[in-house]
Amino acid sequence: MKRAILLRFVVILLLALAVSGAFSYYFIGRNMLAHDKSAMLNTIRAVDYALDYGRDLQEQVEKLHAAAMDENSRITVIASDGTVAADSEIDRPDVMENHLEREEVQEAFAKGTGSDTRSSESVGESMLYVAARSAGGDYVVRMAVPYTNLIDYMLTIFPVLLLGTGIAFAVSVILAVRFSDTITTPLNEICEEMEKVRGDQPDFSFKKYRYQELNVISETTMKMAAEIRAHMDQLEKEKKIRQEFFSNASHELKTPITSVRGYAELLDQGFVQDEATKKDFYARIRKEMDNMTNLINDILMISRLEAKEAEVTFSNVRIGPLLTEVFESMEPIAADAQVMLHKECSPVAIEASAKQMRELVMNLVSNGIKYNHPGGNVWVEAWQEKGSLYIRVKDDGCGIGRQEQGRIFERFYRVDKGRSKKIGGTGLGLSIVKHIVEYYSGSIQLESEPGKGSCFTVELPLRKRIPAE
């Protein structure tokens, strides 16, 4: 990567230097040409000042040229009619052709000064001509020097500009190397840190870099690592829960299956002859079969709720009649346990599955009865508030310890395992409640204290808001 950055930087730098150099050569060359024209005009004015136009101009021009001028320069004096009065390169200027049509001469007579570049017919080479009208105005003094084109000036300054360009290039490359190091070094450090992700518990340690974009990479990596770690922890937790679930399900099914097999073998082998005992055995087999059926149904319900595959028929469920129906079903169980049921419900309805709402309330009320004491109470309240349905199920039973409150929604988890076995149930009631609440994007809160009872508060959106799969 560093090599690629340097290569691209060098290419861009060379292109920039080439373009800037070309413009520099051109404009500096033009400036030098303008400077030379200005110098030539100064020389022309000095010659004009030195000439005595009443005497022999040819003799004067030759002497001035020999005494003060470069041999490559040329001085010409042209009369107003275009005839050549004197020329430093020609002994007999009177035989020269008329110069009135020369561009620089016309400009000088018209504007005071003029210039042109062309090949001289007299000397046979390309010349730069600069002319100025004399102080008296009757003559034009012209000076000429050899001139090919603007490249002459560019070639003059080329070595200096080449040296400057070379120094700029060298300095720029050094700066580019340092700049690329400020990018590639942090990236390499970030890559080295990211190699830790192959470990079980990566612990990243990133520096604070001068470029915010690099800090964004490191911060994003930290976030991703935290998310991966949390996801892995969640997968591990789910794996553990799944293993416990299969173990508990196997254990829960094993007991009734063993009982059914035992009773069936006794009946099949003819060890039981008494009709009353046979009926008792048949009743026990049916009870165990019912327990297994209930357990399997509960497991299937939880699985469908988790996979969002439950076949749900939504309707406008009125909570008041629903509570009345649940109380009618639970009255016999409550009477046996000597527990009083109380309900208070404002007129409220929710868009949901009547079957799931019944299952939710029935499991909470059932738990309030089972984990209570003779003479105890279960209160159920339902009301509407800020677009949500609230259902509160409260009892004054045995309560739940704080250390166990975090696990009561786990499948097959029982606070008092001995008592739970005696009062029956699959151990999946609260887990089903939790999954139904989550299915409707709701929440459930528990307040409990040992010996003072428990209070479950469910909040559900009144309108269907099922999370996307």
TrEMBL record:
Class of enzymatic activity (EC top level): transferase
Q: Which GO terms describe its cellular component?
A: membrane
Reactions accelerated catalytically = ATP + protein L-histidine = ADP + protein N-phospho-L-histidine
Coiled coil location: none
Under Enzyme Commission nomenclature, its number is: 2.7.13.3
Q: Can you give the residue ranges of the Histidine kinase domain? A: 248-464
Going by the UniProt record, its keywords in alphabetical order are: Kinase, Membrane, Phosphoprotein, Transferase, Transmembrane, Transmembrane helix, Two-component regulatory system
Q: Which residues cross the membrane?
A: 153-177
Molecular function terms, GO-annotated: phosphorelay sensor kinase activity
Q: Which Gene3D superfamilies match?
A: 1.10.287.130, 6.10.340.10, Histidine kinase-like ATPase, C-terminal domain (3.30.565.10)
Q: Which InterPro entries match?
A: HATPase_C_sf (IPR036890), HATPase_dom (IPR003594), His_kinase_dom (IPR005467), HisK_dim/P_dom (IPR003661), HisK_dim/P_sf (IPR036097), Sensor_HK_Regulatory (IPR050736), Sig_transdc_His_kin-like_C (IPR004358)
Compartments annotated for it: namely: Membrane
What Pfam families has UniProt attached to this entry? HATPase_c (PF02518), HisKA (PF00512)
Please identify the protein, giving its name as recorded: histidine kinase
Q: Which organism is it from?
A: Candidatus Eisenbergiella pullistercoris
